[in-house]
Amino acid sequence: MKILKFGGTSVGSPERMTKLLDIINPNEEQIVVLSAVSGTTNSLVEIANYFLAGDKQKGSECVENLYQKYKTFVVELLPAAEFQEQGNEVIDYHFSFLAGLANDIFTSIEEKVVLAQGELLSTTLYHIYLKSIGVPSVLLPALDFMKTDEDNEPDIPFTTKHLMPLLEQHKDNKLFITQGYICRNSFGEVDNLRRGGSDYTASLLGAAILAEEVQIWTDIDGMHNNDPRIVKGTKPIAQLSFDEAAELAYFGAKILHPQSVFPAQKYKIPVRLLNTMEPSAAGTLITHDSEKGRIKSIAAKDGITAIRIQSSRMLLAYGFLRRVFEVFERYKTPIDMITTSEVAVSLTIDETAHLPQIIEELESFGTVEVDTNHSIVCVVGDFGSEKHGFASRVLEGLKHIPIRMISYGGSNYNVSLLILSEYKTEALRSLHNRLFE
Protein backbone atom coordinates (compact mmCIF):
# COMPACT_ATOMS: atom_id res chain seq x y z
CA MET A 1 0.00 0.00 0.00
CA LYS A 2 1.17 3.55 -0.78
CA ILE A 3 0.45 6.75 1.15
CA LEU A 4 -0.29 9.81 -1.04
CA LYS A 5 -0.46 13.22 0.61
CA PHE A 6 -1.91 16.25 -1.19
CA GLY A 7 -1.41 19.76 0.19
CA GLY A 8 -3.80 22.69 0.29
CA THR A 9 -2.96 23.99 -3.19
CA SER A 10 -3.56 20.52 -4.66
CA VAL A 11 -7.16 20.65 -3.36
CA GLY A 12 -7.40 24.43 -3.56
CA SER A 13 -10.27 24.54 -6.06
CA PRO A 14 -12.97 22.15 -7.29
CA GLU A 15 -11.07 21.84 -10.58
CA ARG A 16 -7.85 20.82 -8.84
CA MET A 17 -9.69 18.42 -6.57
CA THR A 18 -11.25 16.63 -9.56
CA LYS A 19 -7.83 16.35 -11.23
CA LEU A 20 -6.38 14.34 -8.35
CA LEU A 21 -7.62 11.23 -10.15
CA ASP A 22 -5.00 11.92 -12.81
CA ILE A 23 -2.56 10.87 -10.06
CA ILE A 24 -4.54 8.57 -7.78
CA ASN A 25 -5.02 5.09 -9.22
CA PRO A 26 -8.25 3.66 -7.72
CA ASN A 27 -7.07 0.16 -8.66
CA GLU A 28 -3.96 0.37 -6.45
CA GLU A 29 -4.04 0.10 -2.66
CA GLN A 30 -3.62 3.68 -1.44
CA ILE A 31 -4.34 5.86 1.56
CA VAL A 32 -4.86 9.44 0.39
CA VAL A 33 -4.09 12.10 3.02
CA LEU A 34 -5.63 15.52 2.33
CA SER A 35 -4.85 18.93 3.79
CA ALA A 36 -7.53 21.59 4.16
CA VAL A 37 -8.48 23.54 1.03
CA SER A 38 -5.89 26.33 0.63
CA GLY A 39 -6.80 29.43 2.62
CA THR A 40 -9.17 27.55 4.93
CA THR A 41 -6.76 27.02 7.83
CA ASN A 42 -5.82 30.73 7.80
CA SER A 43 -9.52 31.63 7.97
CA LEU A 44 -10.07 29.16 10.82
CA VAL A 45 -7.11 30.64 12.73
CA GLU A 46 -8.67 34.08 12.28
CA ILE A 47 -12.05 32.81 13.53
CA ALA A 48 -10.44 31.18 16.58
CA ASN A 49 -8.47 34.33 17.38
CA TYR A 50 -11.61 36.48 17.32
CA PHE A 51 -13.49 34.04 19.54
CA LEU A 52 -10.53 33.80 21.95
CA ALA A 53 -10.42 37.61 22.14
CA GLY A 54 -14.17 37.69 22.89
CA ASP A 55 -15.04 39.44 19.60
CA LYS A 56 -17.99 37.19 18.77
CA GLN A 57 -19.33 39.47 16.03
CA LYS A 58 -16.11 39.55 13.97
CA GLY A 59 -15.69 35.81 14.49
CA SER A 60 -19.24 35.13 13.30
CA GLU A 61 -18.69 37.32 10.23
CA CYS A 62 -15.60 35.29 9.33
CA VAL A 63 -17.57 32.06 9.75
CA GLU A 64 -20.25 33.35 7.37
CA ASN A 65 -17.68 34.51 4.78
CA LEU A 66 -15.96 31.10 4.76
CA TYR A 67 -19.35 29.35 4.59
CA GLN A 68 -20.27 31.28 1.43
CA LYS A 69 -16.98 30.24 -0.20
CA TYR A 70 -17.76 26.60 0.54
CA LYS A 71 -21.31 26.99 -0.81
CA THR A 72 -19.76 28.01 -4.16
CA PHE A 73 -17.15 25.24 -3.85
CA VAL A 74 -19.86 22.56 -3.43
CA VAL A 75 -21.87 23.80 -6.45
CA GLU A 76 -18.79 23.59 -8.69
CA LEU A 77 -17.51 20.28 -7.30
CA LEU A 78 -20.84 18.44 -7.20
CA PRO A 79 -23.10 19.63 -10.04
CA ALA A 80 -25.52 16.65 -9.76
CA ALA A 81 -28.46 17.57 -7.47
CA GLU A 82 -28.29 14.41 -5.31
CA PHE A 83 -24.61 14.81 -4.46
CA GLN A 84 -24.81 18.59 -4.19
CA GLU A 85 -27.41 18.06 -1.50
CA GLN A 86 -25.04 15.72 0.35
CA GLY A 87 -22.25 18.30 0.05
CA ASN A 88 -24.49 21.05 1.40
CA GLU A 89 -25.46 18.86 4.36
CA VAL A 90 -21.77 18.43 5.17
CA ILE A 91 -20.91 22.13 5.08
CA ASP A 92 -24.12 23.07 6.92
CA TYR A 93 -23.16 20.67 9.72
CA HIS A 94 -19.62 22.00 10.10
CA PHE A 95 -20.50 25.69 9.80
CA SER A 96 -23.45 25.38 12.18
CA PHE A 97 -20.98 23.98 14.68
CA LEU A 98 -18.56 26.89 14.08
CA ALA A 99 -21.35 29.50 14.32
CA GLY A 100 -22.55 27.94 17.58
CA LEU A 101 -19.18 28.56 19.22
CA ALA A 102 -20.05 32.27 19.39
CA ASN A 103 -22.53 31.40 22.14
CA ASP A 104 -20.19 29.23 24.25
CA ILE A 105 -17.11 29.69 26.40
CA PHE A 106 -14.15 29.55 24.01
CA THR A 107 -10.82 28.12 25.21
CA SER A 108 -7.69 26.64 23.64
CA ILE A 109 -9.52 23.27 23.55
CA GLU A 110 -12.23 24.72 21.28
CA GLU A 111 -9.50 26.43 19.24
CA LYS A 112 -8.00 23.04 18.30
CA VAL A 113 -11.46 21.75 17.31
CA VAL A 114 -11.95 24.80 15.07
CA LEU A 115 -8.60 24.20 13.33
CA ALA A 116 -9.60 20.57 12.62
CA GLN A 117 -12.62 21.58 10.53
CA GLY A 118 -10.62 22.29 7.35
CA GLU A 119 -9.35 18.73 6.92
CA LEU A 120 -12.71 17.25 7.94
CA LEU A 121 -14.39 19.34 5.22
CA SER A 122 -11.90 18.63 2.41
CA THR A 123 -11.84 14.85 2.95
CA THR A 124 -15.62 14.45 3.27
CA LEU A 125 -16.29 16.56 0.18
CA TYR A 126 -13.71 14.61 -1.82
CA HIS A 127 -15.24 11.33 -0.65
CA ILE A 128 -18.65 12.52 -1.89
CA TYR A 129 -17.09 13.62 -5.19
CA LEU A 130 -15.60 10.16 -5.74
CA LYS A 131 -18.98 8.63 -4.97
CA SER A 132 -20.64 10.96 -7.49
CA ILE A 133 -18.40 9.67 -10.32
CA GLY A 134 -18.68 6.02 -9.29
CA VAL A 135 -15.20 5.57 -7.76
CA PRO A 136 -15.41 3.47 -4.57
CA SER A 137 -13.53 4.83 -1.54
CA VAL A 138 -13.60 4.57 2.24
CA LEU A 139 -13.41 7.66 4.46
CA LEU A 140 -11.22 6.91 7.48
CA PRO A 141 -11.57 9.38 10.41
CA ALA A 142 -8.01 10.25 11.47
CA LEU A 143 -9.31 11.02 14.98
CA ASP A 144 -9.91 7.27 15.38
CA PHE A 145 -6.25 6.28 14.96
CA MET A 146 -3.93 9.33 15.08
CA LYS A 147 -2.86 10.09 18.65
CA THR A 148 -0.08 11.82 20.55
CA ASP A 149 1.28 10.77 23.94
CA GLU A 150 1.89 12.76 27.14
CA ASP A 151 4.97 14.37 25.56
CA ASN A 152 2.95 15.39 22.46
CA GLU A 153 4.88 12.86 20.39
CA PRO A 154 2.96 10.67 17.89
CA ASP A 155 2.04 7.22 19.15
CA ILE A 156 2.84 5.00 16.14
CA PRO A 157 1.96 1.67 17.85
CA PHE A 158 -1.48 3.14 18.70
CA THR A 159 -1.96 4.08 15.03
CA THR A 160 -0.98 0.59 13.89
CA LYS A 161 -3.29 -1.05 16.42
CA HIS A 162 -6.33 1.05 15.48
CA LEU A 163 -5.76 1.57 11.75
CA MET A 164 -5.01 -2.00 10.66
CA PRO A 165 -8.44 -3.35 11.76
CA LEU A 166 -10.15 -0.53 9.82
CA LEU A 167 -8.23 -1.47 6.66
CA GLU A 168 -9.01 -5.14 7.26
CA GLN A 169 -12.69 -4.30 7.75
CA HIS A 170 -12.74 -2.85 4.22
CA LYS A 171 -10.31 -5.29 2.57
CA ASP A 172 -12.38 -5.33 -0.65
CA ASN A 173 -11.63 -1.59 -1.07
CA LYS A 174 -8.37 -0.21 -2.40
CA LEU A 175 -8.80 3.56 -1.98
CA PHE A 176 -8.92 5.16 1.47
CA ILE A 177 -9.23 8.88 2.27
CA THR A 178 -8.15 10.44 5.57
CA GLN A 179 -7.29 13.78 7.14
CA GLY A 180 -3.79 15.16 7.55
CA TYR A 181 -2.65 17.29 10.50
CA ILE A 182 -5.39 16.39 13.01
CA CYS A 183 -5.17 13.88 15.86
CA ARG A 184 -6.19 13.35 19.47
CA ASN A 185 -3.93 14.09 22.41
CA SER A 186 -3.29 11.88 25.44
CA PHE A 187 -6.50 13.20 27.05
CA GLY A 188 -8.57 12.20 24.01
CA GLU A 189 -9.16 15.83 23.00
CA VAL A 190 -9.01 16.98 19.38
CA ASP A 191 -5.51 18.29 18.70
CA ASN A 192 -3.06 18.61 15.81
CA LEU A 193 0.45 17.53 14.89
CA ARG A 194 1.68 21.12 14.43
CA ARG A 195 5.19 20.29 13.19
CA GLY A 196 4.97 19.14 9.62
CA GLY A 197 1.17 18.92 9.58
CA SER A 198 -0.14 16.69 6.81
CA ASP A 199 3.34 15.65 5.66
CA TYR A 200 3.92 14.32 9.15
CA THR A 201 0.62 12.41 9.03
CA ALA A 202 1.62 10.74 5.76
CA SER A 203 5.02 9.71 7.12
CA LEU A 204 3.50 8.41 10.36
CA LEU A 205 0.90 6.37 8.45
CA GLY A 206 3.64 4.96 6.22
CA ALA A 207 5.56 3.90 9.33
CA ALA A 208 2.46 2.52 11.09
CA ILE A 209 1.46 0.16 8.26
CA LEU A 210 4.98 -0.32 6.79
CA ALA A 211 3.83 1.15 3.48
CA GLU A 212 5.61 0.53 0.21
CA GLU A 213 6.16 4.27 -0.27
CA VAL A 214 5.06 7.71 0.95
CA GLN A 215 4.39 10.31 -1.73
CA ILE A 216 4.20 14.02 -0.85
CA TRP A 217 2.44 15.89 -3.66
CA THR A 218 2.88 19.68 -3.71
CA ASP A 219 3.14 22.44 -6.32
CA ILE A 220 6.90 22.06 -6.96
CA ASP A 221 8.76 19.17 -8.60
CA GLY A 222 10.82 17.98 -5.64
CA MET A 223 13.55 19.58 -3.57
CA HIS A 224 15.69 21.94 -5.63
CA ASN A 225 19.41 22.55 -5.38
CA ASN A 226 18.72 26.13 -4.23
CA ASP A 227 15.79 28.42 -3.43
CA PRO A 228 13.95 28.89 -6.77
CA ARG A 229 12.31 32.07 -5.45
CA ILE A 230 15.71 33.74 -5.19
CA VAL A 231 18.06 31.93 -7.59
CA LYS A 232 17.42 31.41 -11.30
CA GLY A 233 18.08 28.07 -13.00
CA THR A 234 17.67 25.80 -9.97
CA LYS A 235 17.09 22.09 -10.63
CA PRO A 236 15.28 19.36 -8.71
CA ILE A 237 17.48 16.83 -6.90
CA ALA A 238 16.79 13.28 -8.08
CA GLN A 239 17.87 11.49 -4.91
CA LEU A 240 18.62 12.39 -1.29
CA SER A 241 19.32 10.46 1.88
CA PHE A 242 17.00 10.94 4.85
CA ASP A 243 19.75 12.82 6.70
CA GLU A 244 20.36 15.18 3.78
CA ALA A 245 16.63 15.81 3.35
CA ALA A 246 16.24 16.53 7.08
CA GLU A 247 19.13 19.02 6.99
CA LEU A 248 17.66 20.83 3.98
CA ALA A 249 14.16 20.85 5.44
CA TYR A 250 15.37 22.18 8.78
CA PHE A 251 17.48 24.91 7.19
CA GLY A 252 14.85 26.39 4.95
CA ALA A 253 13.63 24.06 2.17
CA LYS A 254 9.88 24.74 2.56
CA ILE A 255 8.69 21.74 0.56
CA LEU A 256 9.05 19.38 3.54
CA HIS A 257 9.10 19.73 7.32
CA PRO A 258 12.15 18.04 8.91
CA GLN A 259 9.96 16.23 11.45
CA SER A 260 8.19 14.50 8.55
CA VAL A 261 11.36 12.67 7.58
CA PHE A 262 12.00 10.83 10.84
CA PRO A 263 9.16 8.25 11.01
CA ALA A 264 9.85 7.16 7.42
CA GLN A 265 13.59 7.03 8.14
CA LYS A 266 13.13 4.92 11.28
CA TYR A 267 10.89 2.40 9.51
CA LYS A 268 12.84 2.53 6.20
CA ILE A 269 9.89 3.78 4.09
CA PRO A 270 10.96 5.59 0.85
CA VAL A 271 9.54 9.12 0.45
CA ARG A 272 8.93 10.78 -2.92
CA LEU A 273 8.36 14.52 -3.36
CA LEU A 274 6.23 15.08 -6.47
CA ASN A 275 4.46 17.91 -8.33
CA THR A 276 0.66 17.86 -8.64
CA MET A 277 0.85 20.35 -11.51
CA GLU A 278 3.36 18.18 -13.39
CA PRO A 279 2.69 14.55 -12.41
CA SER A 280 5.16 13.13 -14.94
CA ALA A 281 8.14 14.97 -13.39
CA ALA A 282 10.53 12.62 -11.57
CA GLY A 283 10.62 14.67 -8.36
CA THR A 284 12.92 13.73 -5.47
CA LEU A 285 13.31 10.26 -3.95
CA ILE A 286 14.41 10.14 -0.29
CA THR A 287 15.87 6.85 1.00
CA HIS A 288 18.70 5.65 3.25
CA ASP A 289 21.14 5.79 0.32
CA SER A 290 23.25 8.85 -0.40
CA GLU A 291 24.90 9.68 -3.69
CA LYS A 292 28.57 10.05 -2.76
CA GLY A 293 31.01 12.69 -3.91
CA ARG A 294 28.51 15.47 -4.62
CA ILE A 295 27.23 18.73 -3.20
CA LYS A 296 23.45 18.43 -3.38
CA SER A 297 21.79 21.67 -2.38
CA ILE A 298 21.85 25.04 -0.63
CA ALA A 299 19.18 26.30 1.77
CA ALA A 300 18.82 29.28 4.11
CA LYS A 301 16.99 29.89 7.36
CA ASP A 302 16.08 33.44 8.42
CA GLY A 303 15.22 34.99 11.77
CA ILE A 304 18.38 33.80 13.52
CA THR A 305 19.77 35.39 16.69
CA ALA A 306 23.43 34.81 17.59
CA ILE A 307 24.59 34.80 21.23
CA ARG A 308 28.24 34.87 22.36
CA ILE A 309 29.15 34.09 25.98
CA GLN A 310 32.76 34.99 26.87
CA SER A 311 34.24 33.95 30.20
CA SER A 312 37.72 33.26 31.54
CA ARG A 313 36.02 30.70 33.84
CA MET A 314 35.57 28.54 30.77
CA LEU A 315 39.31 28.01 30.35
CA LEU A 316 40.21 24.39 31.19
CA ALA A 317 36.89 24.06 33.07
CA TYR A 318 34.52 21.13 32.79
CA GLY A 319 30.75 21.48 33.17
CA PHE A 320 30.67 25.02 31.70
CA LEU A 321 28.86 24.06 28.48
CA ARG A 322 26.43 21.87 30.39
CA ARG A 323 25.40 24.85 32.55
CA VAL A 324 24.98 27.02 29.43
CA PHE A 325 22.80 24.41 27.73
CA GLU A 326 20.69 24.01 30.87
CA VAL A 327 19.64 27.66 30.57
CA PHE A 328 18.22 27.03 27.10
CA GLU A 329 16.65 23.78 28.25
CA ARG A 330 14.82 25.55 31.10
CA TYR A 331 13.24 27.93 28.58
CA LYS A 332 12.56 25.19 26.00
CA THR A 333 14.63 27.06 23.41
CA PRO A 334 16.41 24.90 20.80
CA ILE A 335 19.93 25.76 19.59
CA ASP A 336 20.72 25.64 15.85
CA MET A 337 24.49 26.14 15.60
CA ILE A 338 27.30 26.19 18.12
CA THR A 339 31.05 26.97 17.97
CA THR A 340 33.50 27.18 20.85
CA SER A 341 36.95 28.50 21.73
CA GLU A 342 38.89 28.18 24.99
CA VAL A 343 37.21 31.28 26.47
CA ALA A 344 33.97 31.74 24.52
CA VAL A 345 31.01 29.92 23.08
CA SER A 346 28.82 31.23 20.25
CA LEU A 347 25.43 29.73 19.43
CA THR A 348 22.29 30.57 17.51
CA ILE A 349 18.56 30.34 18.21
CA ASP A 350 15.47 31.09 16.13
CA GLU A 351 12.99 31.20 19.02
CA THR A 352 13.35 34.45 20.97
CA ALA A 353 10.25 34.43 23.19
CA HIS A 354 12.40 34.03 26.33
CA LEU A 355 15.51 35.85 25.12
CA PRO A 356 15.55 38.50 27.93
CA GLN A 357 15.40 35.82 30.66
CA ILE A 358 18.02 33.70 28.87
CA ILE A 359 20.42 36.66 28.58
CA GLU A 360 19.91 37.53 32.24
CA GLU A 361 20.89 34.01 33.33
CA LEU A 362 23.82 33.78 30.90
CA GLU A 363 25.29 37.04 32.24
CA SER A 364 26.09 35.19 35.46
CA PHE A 365 28.69 33.23 33.43
CA GLY A 366 30.43 36.15 31.74
CA THR A 367 30.03 38.79 29.03
CA VAL A 368 27.07 38.22 26.70
CA GLU A 369 26.74 39.69 23.19
CA VAL A 370 23.56 39.33 21.12
CA ASP A 371 23.31 39.86 17.34
CA THR A 372 19.94 39.74 15.55
CA ASN A 373 18.82 39.72 11.88
CA HIS A 374 21.04 36.86 10.80
CA SER A 375 20.50 33.91 8.46
CA ILE A 376 22.01 30.43 8.42
CA VAL A 377 23.13 29.30 4.97
CA CYS A 378 23.40 25.52 4.83
CA VAL A 379 25.21 23.61 2.08
CA VAL A 380 24.25 19.92 2.00
CA GLY A 381 26.20 17.12 0.33
CA ASP A 382 28.97 14.62 0.90
CA PHE A 383 31.24 16.36 3.41
CA GLY A 384 32.82 13.20 4.83
CA SER A 385 36.33 13.57 6.23
CA GLU A 386 37.81 11.72 3.25
CA LYS A 387 36.48 14.31 0.80
CA HIS A 388 38.86 16.99 -0.43
CA GLY A 389 38.04 20.54 -1.46
CA PHE A 390 34.27 20.75 -0.95
CA ALA A 391 34.45 22.95 2.17
CA SER A 392 37.04 25.22 0.55
CA ARG A 393 34.75 25.68 -2.48
CA VAL A 394 31.96 26.77 -0.13
CA LEU A 395 34.21 29.33 1.58
CA GLU A 396 35.56 30.50 -1.77
CA GLY A 397 31.97 31.21 -2.87
CA LEU A 398 31.48 33.49 0.14
CA LYS A 399 34.89 35.16 0.26
CA HIS A 400 33.34 38.62 -0.33
CA ILE A 401 30.67 38.21 2.42
CA PRO A 402 31.34 38.66 6.19
CA ILE A 403 30.79 35.34 8.01
CA ARG A 404 29.82 35.43 11.70
CA MET A 405 30.02 31.66 12.44
CA ILE A 406 30.94 28.41 10.68
CA SER A 407 29.75 24.94 11.69
CA TYR A 408 31.57 22.06 10.00
CA GLY A 409 32.08 18.48 11.09
CA GLY A 410 28.92 18.07 13.15
CA SER A 411 27.74 15.65 10.48
CA ASN A 412 29.04 14.33 7.16
CA TYR A 413 26.22 16.09 5.33
CA ASN A 414 26.49 19.83 5.79
CA VAL A 415 28.47 23.02 6.24
CA SER A 416 26.49 25.81 7.92
CA LEU A 417 27.46 29.48 7.88
CA LEU A 418 25.93 32.39 9.77
CA ILE A 419 25.70 35.71 7.94
CA LEU A 420 23.71 38.93 8.22
CA SER A 421 20.33 38.49 6.53
CA GLU A 422 21.03 41.44 4.23
CA TYR A 423 23.68 39.27 2.51
CA LYS A 424 21.49 36.15 2.13
CA THR A 425 20.36 36.67 -1.48
CA GLU A 426 23.92 37.44 -2.62
CA ALA A 427 25.22 34.41 -0.68
CA LEU A 428 22.74 31.97 -2.25
CA ARG A 429 23.45 33.24 -5.77
CA SER A 430 27.21 33.33 -5.32
CA LEU A 431 27.31 29.79 -3.87
CA HIS A 432 25.09 28.54 -6.69
CA ASN A 433 27.47 29.95 -9.30
CA ARG A 434 30.49 28.48 -7.50
CA LEU A 435 29.07 25.04 -6.75
CA PHE A 436 26.67 24.22 -9.61
CA GLU A 437 27.50 26.31 -12.66
From TrEMBL:
Descriptive protein name = Aspartokinase
* Pathway where this protein functions: Amino-acid biosynthesis; L-methionine biosynthesis via de novo pathway; L-homoserine from L-aspartate: step 1/3; Amino-acid biosynthesis; L-threonine biosynthesis; L-threonine from L-aspartate: step 1/5; Amino-acid biosynthesis; L-lysine biosynthesis via DAP pathway; (S)-tetrahydrodipicolinate from L-aspartate: step 1/4
Residues in domain Aspartokinase ACT? 377-434
Tell me its family.
Belongs to the aspartokinase family.
**CDD domains named in the record:** AAK_AK-HSDH-like, ACT_AKiii-LysC-EC-like_1
List residues of the Aspartate/glutamate/uridylate kinase domain: 2-275
| Positions with a binding annotation for ATP | 5-8, 218-219, 229
Q: Name one GO molecular function term.
A: aspartate kinase activity
Q: Name one GO biological process term.
A: threonine biosynthetic process
**Looking at the keywords, is ATP-binding present?**
yes
Pfam families hit by this protein: AA_kinase (PF00696), ACT_9 (PF22468)
The enzyme class is transferase
User: Which residues does the record give as substrate binding sites?
Assistant: 41, 119
- The catalytic activity of this protein is classed by the Enzyme Commission as 2.7.2.4
- One GO CC term, this protein: cytosol
Q: Which domain of life is it from?
A: Bacteria
